[in-house]
Design brief:
Elements lengths: L1 H18 L2 E2 L5 E7 L4 E9 L5 E8 L4 E4 L3 E2 L4 E8 L5 E11 L6 E11 L11 H13 L2 H15 L5 H35 L1 H31 L12 H14 L5 H31 L5 H28 L3 H10 L1 H21 L9
Parallel strand pairs: 2-9
Antiparallel strand pairs: 1-3, 3-7, 4-6, 4-8, 5-7, 8-9
């Protein structure tokens, strides 16, 4: 019996070593608590516990985790350092893994877990220096977007010429502004969640961001071209970036039917919901890239605050239009003012598109810069 125990004590380690030649810490790569939005690194040792070298052919990170190995050939009784780098954007627990492909016939693929918890960052360095100014600027410029500003003038004119008293016109306009704000907030929150899901799919995320940056540069060119065309021929038919005529007609129809009844405040809020969804064909050109930038900000409250700032900046021109409409029924004068400012608005919009394109490009992981 004693001999059997001795043989077993010798044979069992041999089988264990044959099963895995690389020894990995039982917890894998455990980061513990790290700050959301900040890059972090953690290293562990992979030790060769066999009597022959282990050749590693590939080290592959997953789901936003990058990994490097100090040596791709690990000699017997030696170790190589596995370094894992990641940058979790959202607070909460995360679970990723790193794959080691080697020539071990028993374990050619070793999956090493990467775990930890991202917490809210208290460091001001984690916040972007450019996101807040870009959000405010984009919101104001998008609020004066010619392809949607003309609709604002038209809606204000409908409310002004409806025979209502000034108080009713103000109430209807402000309720419309509130409805626009709430609708854009809900849209933004939903789209940001979708963008944050892409954050875990690093390759897909970077491809989407690269395509978005390219689209922004195209929109910038088209906006500058619209300004040049409108300067030569001051009619909206030469403008490329605008709402389709059918959508404009539908928006006016909705407004006329909504504000025909006595409940002007409730009707204005409901009208805003429908009009905002249609107008998003135009304003979404700026809104989507802004959401892409906001979604990368650390902390749910910061993202929500930035989204609120953008939408407040966006509706500011709309509030001004309805206040002006409450003082006059001359919608023609407001439309004339809008027409005079098409060129400056298009130039400003082109600059914003270009700025957003640069910021989106800088957010790509491959450039190593976070905005």
């Amino acid at each position: 019996m004693k001999i059997n125990l001795v043989l077993l004590s010798v044979i069992m380690p041999m089988f264990m070593l044959a099963a895995t030649r690389l020894s990995v810490p039982p917890d894998g790569v455990a980061f513990g608590e790290i700050a959301a939005g900040e890059a972090a690194a953690k290293s562990i040792e992979l030790r060769n516990v066999s009597s022959s070298p282990v050749a590693v052919s590939h080290v592959k990170g997953c789901c936003g985790a990058d990994a490097t190995l100090s040596s791709m050939r690990i000699e017997p009784s030696s170790a190589a350092t596995l370094s894992v780098f990641l940058k979790p954007m959202l607070p909460g627990e995360f679970s990723k893994h790193v794959q080691i492909l080697c020539d071990d016939p028993e374990s050619p693929v070793i999956n090493i877990p990467v775990t930890g918890t991202a917490v809210e960052s208290r460091s001001p360095r984690a916040a972007s220096h450019w996101t807040l100014p870009a959000v405010v600027l984009a919101g104001i410029v998008d609020g004066f977007n010619p392809c949607s500003f003309a609709i604002m003038i038209s809606l204000a004119g409908i409310l002004a010429i409806g025979g209502r008293k000034r108080k009713a016109r103000i109430l209807g306009g402000l309720s419309f502004c509130a409805g626009t704000f709430v609708t854009y907030m809900l849209m933004g929150l939903g789209l940001m969640q979708a963008l944050k899901v892409l954050e875990g799919l690093r390759v897909v995320h970077d491809v989407v961001m690269a395509l978005l940056a390219f689209a922004l540069f195209v929109l910038s060119f088209l906006s500058f071209r619209d300004a040049a065309r409108f300067r030569k021929i001051p009619v909206f038919s030469v403008v490329t970036l605008k709402l389709p005529e059918g959508v404009k007609v539908l928006i006016r129809k909705i407004a006329m039917e909504s504000w025909s009844g006595p409940a002007v405040a409730l009707a204005g809020f409901g009208c805003a919901f429908l009009v905002t969804l249609l107008d998003a064909l135009c304003t979404g050109q700026v809104y989507v890239p802004i959401l892409a930038l906001i979604s990368r900000e650390p902390g749910a409250w910061r993202s929500f605050a930035l989204l609120s700032v953008y939408n407040l900046a966006f509706i500011a021109p709309l509030v001004a239009v309805f206040i002006l409409a409450s003082k006059t029924t001359d919608a023609f004068q407001m439309a004339k003012w809008s027409s005079r400012n098409v060129i400056p608005a298009k130039i400003a919009l082109g600059l914003v598109f270009a700025l957003l394109g640069v910021l989106v490009l800088l957010s790509l992981k491959g450039l190593g810069v976070s905005v």
